[in-house]
């Protein structure tokens, strides 16, 4: 079967399964099965797909039809221009979260010590370090399986930064095993209210780690726990930057106001939705 014919077959199957991006997903799965990239389809649509490649492609299609996320099948997710390894133990990096990284890059200084709380795949911390110099990053997460992925991503993506960048990871229930103070604290914590999770699309509700989604009753539990420790772990003049749900801006901002933080701002993502809350710890308290 020709390359373009295989994509057409896959796209039709995924469309019938209710997959919104059926054509794109079919192409990406075929690329994975054949070990090629996008240029192969466009420059050589007549390329013959081997029986083994087509068999692998069909197996991947079956998994996608079951609403297993595309990135869990390909084991790759693109974020901030980097390709991150992902699996079912970490949240798939999303374009919305790039807003947090962009805000971090505006305030971080060379030589900063940066904490990424609830690091997951490490995509936030690794991206910030990749575009910084002489910084030290610490990624904390309660999940040892997530940290395995984060460490693998750091090793693969920061190998050219080893001379001027330090990164480490700690298995910790929030700040429990985190040491020292930081110039910048970043976090995309679980923030979806428990009763909302079953209403999410199947790819998220059934296949992404519940521990990385569930923000307890009102979705604010983790923000409250993190904020109550900021004065202990953030240096005076340092900043905290949170990713938030679209309707949590005022609530999270209020938590920072209550502890006297300044420069508090709600930042929208490219879709115009509230996505980030940031604030600064006063130098003088």
Q: What is the gist of this entry?
A:
The protein has 12 helices and 9 strands. It is an alpha/beta fold. It folds into 2 domains: 3-66; 88-280, Vaccinia Virus protein VP39 (Rossmann fold, 3-Layer(aba) Sandwich).
General description of the model:
The chain is of the alpha/beta class and 285 residues long. It has two domains: 64 residues; 193 residues, Rossmann fold (3-Layer(aba) Sandwich). It is built from twelve helices and nine strands. The protein has a seven-stranded mixed β-sheet, sandwiched between helices. Strands 1-2 form a two-stranded antiparallel ribbon. Helix 8 links the parallel strand 4 and strand 5.
Shape: globular
Please compute the radius of gyration using only Cα atoms. Answer: 21 Å
Chain oligomer state? single chain
Q: What's the helix-strand series?
A: HHHHHEEHEHEHEEHHHEHEE
What is the fold named in CATH at topology level of the largest domain? Rossmann fold
Q: What fraction strand?
A: 15-25%
Q: Which features does this protein show?
A:
285 residues; alpha/beta; Rossmann fold; 7-stranded mixed β-sheet; two-stranded antiparallel ribbon; 12 helices; 9 strands
Write the layout of secondary structure elements.
Elements (H helix, E strand, L loop, with lengths): L2 H14 L5 H13 L3 H6 L7 H15 L4 H5 L1 E4 L2 E4 L12 H10 L5 E5 L5 H8 L5 E6 L2 H14 L8 E6 L10 E6 L14 H4 L15 H7 L2 H4 E10 L5 H10 L3 E7 L5 E7 L5
Helix pairs in contact: 1-2, 1-4, 2-4, 6-7
């Amino acid at each position: 079967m020709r390359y373009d014919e295989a994509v057409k077959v896959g796209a039709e199957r995924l469309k019938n399964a209710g997959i919104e991006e059926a054509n794109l997903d079919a192409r990406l799965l075929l690329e994975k099965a054949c070990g090629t990239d996008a240029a192969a389809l466009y420059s050589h649509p007549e390329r013959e797909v081997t029986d083994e490649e087509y068999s692998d492609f069909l197996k991947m299609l079956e998994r996608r039809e079951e609403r297993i996320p595309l990135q869990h099948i390909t084991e790759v997710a693109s974020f901030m221009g980097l390709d991150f390894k992902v699996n079912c133990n970490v949240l798939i990096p999303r374009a919305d979260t790039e807003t947090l990284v962009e805000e971090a890059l505006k305030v971080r200084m060379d030589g900063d010590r940066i904490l990424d709380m609830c690091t997951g795949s490490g995509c936030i911390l690794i991206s910030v370090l990749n575009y910084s110099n002489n910084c030290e990053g610490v990624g904390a997460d309660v999940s040892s399986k997530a940290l395995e992925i984060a460490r693998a991503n750091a090793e693969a993506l920061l190998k050219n930064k080893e001379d001027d960048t330090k990164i480490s990871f700690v298995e910790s229930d929030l700040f429990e095993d985190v040491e020292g103070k930081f110039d910048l604290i970043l976090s995309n914590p679980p923030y979806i209210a428990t009763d909302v999770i079953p209403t999410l699309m199947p790819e998220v509700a059934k296949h992404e780690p519940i521990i990385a989604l569930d923000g307890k009753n009102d979705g604010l539990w983790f923000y409250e726990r993190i904020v109550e420790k900021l004065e202990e772990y953030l240096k005076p003049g340092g900043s905290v930057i949170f990713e938030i749900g679209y309707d949590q801006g005022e609530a999270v901002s209020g938590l920072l106001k209550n502890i006297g933080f300044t420069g508090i701002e709600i930042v929208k993502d490219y879709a115009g939705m509230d996505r980030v809350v940031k604030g600064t710890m006063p130098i003088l308290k």
